[in-house]
Amino acid sequence: MVGDVTDRLYYRDSSVLSFEGTIVECGEHEGRWYTILDRSAFYPTSGGQQHDLGRLGDVDIVDVVEGEDAAVRHISNKPVGDVGDTVSGEIDHERRRRHQQQHTAQHILSQALVRLWGFDTLSVHLGEDYGTIEFAAAEITAEQLELVESFCNDVITRNLPVTISFVEDADLADVGLRRPTARTGKIRVVSVGDIDVSACGGTHCSATGEVALLKITGIEKIRGHAVVRFLSGDQAITDYRSRFAATSRLTRMLTCHVDDLPAKIEHLLADIKALRNQISDLSRELLPTWAGEIAARAFQEGSHTIVAEVLDLQDNRLAVKLAGVVADRVQGVVLFIHEGRLLMSVPEAGDLDAGLLARKLGERLGLKGGGSKRRAQLGGAASDKLPEYVKVVTRLLDEM
Ligand SMILES: [Zn+2]
Question: Could you tell me if 354 and 377 are in contact, meaning their C-beta atoms sit under 8 angstroms apart?
Answer without folding.
Answer: no
